[in-house]
Amino acid sequence: MKVYIDLMTSFFARIFSVVIALIQSIILAHYLLPKGRGELASIMYFPTIISSFSHFGVHWAIIYYLRTERQNKDTILKLGFSIFFILTLVSFLFTFFLGLIFYRRIFTSLPKISILISSLFILPLMFENLSKAIFRGTQRIIYTNLFQIVKAFSIFAIIFISILIFKPSVVVITFLMLTIQSLVIFVSIFFSYKGLKPTLIIEKDYYLKMFKYGLKMYAFSMFLSLCYRMDIGIIKYFRSFEEVGYYVTSVSLAEVLWNIPNIVSFVLFPYVVGSSTEDQNIITTKMSRFSAFVVGIGCILLAIFSKFLIVFLYGKEFLNSVLPLIILLPGIFSISIQQILGADISGRGYPGIVAKATFLGFFSNLILNILLIPKFGITAASFSSSISYTLIAIMLIYSFKKISKEKISNLFIL
Question: Cα(82)–Cα(192) distance, rounded to whole angstroms?
Answer without folding.
Answer: 15
